[in-house]
Amino acid sequence: MQNKTIYTKYPSLLTVFSLLLIALCSLLITNCQTLPSGAQAFLMESGFAPLDSGASAYIFGNVREVRPIIELLPIEELNDRQIRQMLDKTDYVAAAFFPAQSGRRFQLVTWGNYPSNANMGFTLHSGWEKRRGQLSGSFWYSSAGRISVALNTRQAFVAASLVNESRDPVTPPPGMEIPEGFNEFRAGAPLSCWLENPAPAIYRILNEMGIPIRFPVQKLFFNIAPTGEKFESVIRLQFENATQARGVAAILNLAGGFASSDDFIASALFLANPPVQNGQNIDIKTAPLSAREISLLLQMFSLY
After folding, report:
1. CB atoms within 10 A of CB 214
2. Can you tell me the distance from the alpha carbon of 216 to that of 240, in angstroms, rounded to the nearest whole number?
């Protein structure tokens, strides 16, 4: 993980940076009084996420329900006592992950119940400067970490960059428009994600499955939900029209007859169950997966 030394250089701020780690499992200035328990409902009703446009992936998660996945992430700082305490105080997270060429790393908003004196940690360290923000009013910036943070007792707003430029971590309203069909798709799921440009990841996965073809997938959604002691995921591939979806479903059905049972990607993920066409979409239900296998799924889509 990049910038590990940055986090350990300012250990008293781990209670804030733990929020960044939550987003790696994976990621409301117009309504700052929204309670954590109402965060998902707000996102459903508004049709917008309080995140910037231009990201590669957007992820939403109920931290308490997907904690077993978070615990398995390959992040050393998750063993820190302060971070674990902060995770206990966070209910919901929305995050955006940006392509490297944008100069940005990620942005996130979390909802929880945080200490009223959390901002005091910034004033005690010379590595942080208080900056005026157009939307946040004020935020803290670390030039060493290239991170901007705005925090109150109910929410945290964080923006991380690859370049040294302070950025108000609060997104101007209305924020990033949620794709059509995504809210309905993710209803009730404790963790969900959409990829803006999924084609490169899909092509790579198909090649690993021994299917060296390309098809014009426009969006990729996926949900993760617990089922007993394991998890299940539903992956949705969205196409321009139903004809394209029908053709790809036929290809995947054909490939399923030749898939090796030893191939995790094929047997447990994309070809575990027959693809179901739903208009211009194809829905693929995975086999039951362990938390460790779910973390592999997230890595496949380059979410961390």
Report:
1. 11
2. 8
- Find, among 295, 205, 279, the residue nearest to 243 by Cα: 279
For 47-84, the pLDDT digits (tens) are 899 999 999 989 898 888 877 776 765 555 466 565 56
pLDDT tens-digit profile of 217-246? 999 999 988 888 888 899 999 999 999 999
Query: What's the half-sphere exposure (Cβ side, CA atoms, 13 Å) at 302?
Result: 20
Instruction: Give the dihedral sign, CA 108/113/116/117.
Output: negative
Q: Is the pTM of this model over 0.85?
A: no
Query: Please, is 102 exposed, middle or buried when counting C-beta atoms within 10 Å of its C-beta (0-12, 13-18, 19+)?
Result: middle
Residues 6+ apart with CB under 8 A from 31: 42
Distances from the Cα of 118 to the Cα of 19, 36, 121, 151, 169, angstroms: 13, 18, 6, 8, 17
Within a 13 Å sphere around the CA of 55, how many CA atoms are in the beta-carbon half? 29
